[in-house]
Amino acid sequence: MKRLLICLSVTLMSGLMSCACNDLKQGNVDLELPDDGKEAGLVIPDKFVHPGLLHTVEDVERWKEIVADQEQPAYACYEKFAADAHSKPNYPLQGPFKEIYRGTFDGKQSIQGNYESDFNAAYQNSVMYAVTGDEAHALKAVEILNAYANNLKAIVGNDQPLLAGIMGVKFMYAAEMMRYLYPQGMTDESFARVCAMFRNVFVPVLEEFMAKPAYSNGNWGASVCMSYIAAGVLFDDKAMYETGVKFYQFGNDNGTIYNYVDGQTGQCQESGRDQAHTQLGLACLSVSCEIAWNQGTDLYGIDDNRLMKGFEYTSRYNVGHNDLPYRVWKDVTGKYCNWQTISEEKRGQFRPVFEMPYNHYVNRKGLSMPNTAEVLKKIRPEGYYYEHFGFGTFLFSDKK
Question: What are the tens digits of pLDDT across the range 88-113?
């Protein structure tokens, strides 16, 4: 009954508050993708669940149970999460900045670590508020969101799509959580400013990438897609959401599910490049799937659980098995077709990206992922890495 009341109250609030971002309409990119959003048996929601990016109010209740009962190994991961500097309400803001860029740009020193730290702090403090109810965490998350909303004007440099994709989704996550769990702090006015920042700074970069002919390895497109789907939910914009879902399947890019993962073996487009980028691409695809799942759209199940095969292939190789098939990949761009063998670079260096897909395919769907299970035995509890949400042993522990 407690969960039901919480769900009802959040649903009512979402109906009342959605106008703040809905008023900021702008044109969506025309990808000339299939008109039928249900071509792969997918459902496009008429109404969005809020909060509803990676987590819902039911998940928040699950987190509280884990902490109260000190369930292992999830609780050990929570302790790691709570101890992280980005989870502290006294986190010192590194920005805000008027322009952000990856690496160095135009002779300027790198600020990448600074804004990435800020975005992670907003995300992690929003989770800590949800778990603990300590208003200091909410105030910190809102402070960071407002600071950038009032100052950030542009994403610049050579890696704009990757920046907007990887970091945009984390910042959107924080905005979504604060809007619906702490509306007294993330007010209509604040939320409108935050949404305007995403609309004016992040979304144009994402849309420009999606509309261009493919030119990058798949982790770029996969990261762009996850932030675009997240933006569709945050803005209550059905057209954006549907465009993101279609891009995940049918976009002419290396970062789509059909172009990134081999449907038979699970080999990935970047398997011959290195294992770090391969894990990044898979992780971004899984984030798109999880957001869509919370909205009633099953991207996970496309083509007989194609994404699961990618994780299993990559997991098996990285835990030390050498019996995997490999073929020279004919990528969309024609530029990345020269890797003759699966790459040993960064082999066995695991990113914290395995718990979320494992939870879906094994806990939700009752399928088997023995190779990914072997990875989890090595790395639990999952920790932090700046490009990912991380801490999955806690955040995705038996998530239904």
Answer: 999 999 999 999 999 999 889 999 99
Asked whether 234 and 228 are in contact (CB, 8 A), the reply is: no
Cis check for the bond before 183: say yes or no (omega within 30 of 0). Answer: no
Q: How many CB atoms lie within 10 A of CB 122?
A: 27
Q: Which residues contact 164 (CB under 8 A, 6 or more apart)?
A: 155, 202, 205, 206, 224, 227
Distance of alpha carbon 213 from alpha carbon 232, whole angstroms: 22
Give the pLDDT score at 8. 33
Confidence of residue 397 (pLDDT cuts 50, 70, 90): confident
Structure tokens at 136: 């200091």
How far are the Cα atoms of 218, 252, 275, 350 from residue 335, in angstroms, in the given order? 12, 14, 19, 27
Which contiguous run of DSSP H or E holds residue 154?
Answer: strand 154-155
pLDDT at residue 42, rounded to an integer: 84
In angstroms, the Cα distances linking 41 to 48, 246, 299, 357 are 19, 12, 10, 20
SS3 99: strand
CA atoms within 13 A on the CB side of 398: 10
Residue 206 and residue 161 in contact, taking contact as beta carbons nearer than 8 Å = yes
**Residue 159, number of CB atoms within 10 A of its CB:** 18
- Pairing type for strands 99-100 and 154-155 reads parallel
Q: What angle is formed at CA 268 by the lines to CA 172 and CA 378, rounded to 5 degrees?
A: 75
Sign of the C-alpha dihedral computed for residues 297, 231, 133 and 382 taken in this order: positive
Distance separating alpha carbons of residues 292 and 257, to the nearest angstrom: 14
Q: What is d(CA 215, CA 224) in angstroms, rounded to the nearest whole number? A: 13
